[in-house]
Design a protein that fits this description.
Length: 551
């Protein structure tokens, strides 16, 4: 049976589990609280989205015609609108790719083992990868190939040298900023005789936007090859080059024979069609291990994942048809709203951000699974099932988190358990902000995240679970800390991705300087405390099933 890479089935975890609390009076009370409070969370957003609401006229022009129950749909988020409006085209493209892949494999493969089956796919992957970028970006595909070749040559020329790591980082950071500054470089600006190429734009002309994800793959290839080259004569490298383990952690870290770091594998990995546009992100080592020795993915796993994707897609459709919170946020149509309603506008915007990222990532991962490659799952917990800042970032965009840990956090000394690792965390989140967009709003978000991590790290060190877990008060004190963590995480993400600093300042002012805001906080904090207690027990129930996640 294929085991998703985001889950560890640990026998040791079973020995540490506690008896179930679900049937205790305490959790019966929590269940009643859920039945009372959760409907209000839905009700508030739906009421704000009615045509009878006084603020409806302020954002109605941002709504589109929907298909559910005669309702309008809030399709105003540009990022998700791009995926939603092009969903059928993506479905067609993925179907053509998968059918072609199966036909090629049947025609070319002559050996009995999966090893030889995937090894013979290298030419097919190369051709389809290059074809895809010409379809998507037209003549701009030449710019992409040019950047790829430059990165490959620089990586090869600095192989095995300590400065090779700095070469990989310097070149790709330069490309990241140059792409943004020159908006993808017009051919005309290079030379007047090349101006005619600007007319061949492809179906997705703004290649520099999605190239941010490609940058991560270029860095991955550069560092993986450099580290493999520097370790080429060690006994460990020789052993890893000959052996294979299906454990995803070893696939990421174990190097290959140096001949596997060739141009064909590099281009195939960098432009692999199912993951090219948005990820999830695989490291070069992981991709080539799966090319050499495919992970066995059962039909049940693929069908189950397809159903999960469909449920997520339909959930998003219901939310966008009944809760117009994105349009409300963009139009700042919250005049006269209560602090509770303001908080719910922010909360549901965060839920939509989670869904709008989850759905494309699941689509592209499903495409990859059907093609025989198993990239990491990006979202392994619901956005509303988080109480730890560190745990939240382990489960949110997990493939990116694994990339950051391998290529930035650990090399900077973040893995040293004796230190708090605040400086490495600050560098990591600064990079994340700049990688997303060159804006002061995102920089403020990144530094707020690090600031809010400090209390959790400090409390974890002062009151370790190993020492205090048996005390009756410990779980409740942790739940108080978890509730405060949730508030801080929401504020940081509202600044970075929803309301901005001005919108959050208005919300905080309403909460702290108005009597209605004080009443809301007096109710919200106990509700969050109860929610965290339920999250604790949910994780214990996972452990009782032999499932252990570090988030």
């Amino acid at each position: 049976m294929h085991v998703p890479s985001s889950i560890n089935y640990s026998p040791a975890a079973l020995m540490k589990t506690k008896p179930s609390r679900w049937r205790t009076p305490e959790f019966a009370f929590y269940g009643v609280a859920f039945l009372v409070v959760v409907p209000f969370i839905f009700k508030s957003a739906i009421e704000l989205s009615q045509t009878s609401h006084p603020n409806y006229i302020m954002y109605q022009d941002r709504l589109s015609n929907g298909w559910l129950f005669g309702r309008k749909v809030d399709n105003s988020d540009m990022q998700y609108r791009s995926f939603r409006n092009n969903f059928m085209s993506l479905l067609f493209l993925s179907s053509v790719h998968l059918i072609s892949s199966k036909l090629y494999t049947k025609c070319v493969h002559a050996g009995p083992s999966p090893y030889s089956q995937n090894s013979t796919r290298a030419p097919f992957l190369l051709i389809t990868s290059i074809s895809l970028i010409f379809i998507l970006h037209g003549a701009s595909a030449l710019k992409i190939l040019g950047i790829l070749i430059l990165n490959y040559l620089l990586t090869k020329s600095s192989a095995g040298q300590r400065y090779g790591v700095y070469v990989a980082w310097s070149f790709n950071i330069f490309i990241l900023f140059a792409n943004k500054h020159y908006d993808g470089y017009r051919f005309e600006s290079l030379h007047a005789s090349l101006a005619f190429l600007d007319a061949f734009r492809g179906v997705y002309p703004r290649w520099s936007i999605s190239f941010n994800v490609t940058i991560l793959r270029l860095i991955s290839f550069g560092l993986d090859f450099n580290w493999a080259s520097r370790a080429m004569n060690t006994e460990l490298n020789q052993q890893n080059s000959k052996s294979f383990t299906s454990d995803d952690r070893h696939r990421i870290s174990d190097p290959h024979p140096l001949e596997m770091y060739n141009l064909v594998n590099y281009v195939s990995y960098t432009l692999y069609p199912p993951l090219y546009i948005a990820g999830p992100i695989m490291t070069f080592n992981d991709f080539v291990w799966q090319l050499r020795e495919p992970v066995q993915i059962s039909r049940r796993t693929r069908v189950g994942y397809a159903l999960r994707f469909l449920v997520s897609l339909l959930t998003m459709e219901f939310v966008l048809h009944f809760m117009y919170v994105v349009a409300i946020k963009d139009a700042k149509a919250w005049t006269g709203d209560t602090p509770f309603q303001l908080a719910m506008i922010g909360y549901w915007n965060l839920v939509i951000i989670w869904l709008k990222l989850l759905i494309p990532w699941r689509f592209f991962r499903l495409w990859s699974l059907l093609d025989g490659f198993d990239p990491p799952e990006n979202m392994i917990r619901c956005v509303s099932n988080n109480y730890s800042t560190l745990g939240f970032w382990r489960s949110w965009h997990r493939s990116y988190n694994l990339w950051l840990i391998r290529y930035i956090y650990i090399p900077l000394g973040g893995g040293d358990k004796r230190s708090f690792g605040i400086i490495p965390k600050l560098i990591v989140f600064t990079f994340v902000a700049l990688w997303h967009d060159l804006s002061t709003q995102l920089l403020a978000w990144s530094w707020l995240v690090v600031l809010f991590i400090i209390p959790e790290v400090s409390c974890t060190r002062l009151f370790p679970e190993s020492k205090y877990d048996g005390r009756s008060w410990y779980r409740h004190v942790c739940a108080v800390g978890g509730a405060l963590n949730i508030i801080m995480m929401m504020l940081a993400n509202l600044v970075g991705f929803v309301l901005g600093a001005d919108g959050v300042r208005y919300l905080v002012n309403q909460l702290l300087h108005e009597w209605e805001g004080a009443k809301f906080l007096l109710v919200a904090l106990p509700c969050l405390f109860i929610a965290v207690q339920v999250m604790f027990e949910y994780r214990e129930s996972e452990k009782r099933k032999g499932i252990f996640r570090k988030c």
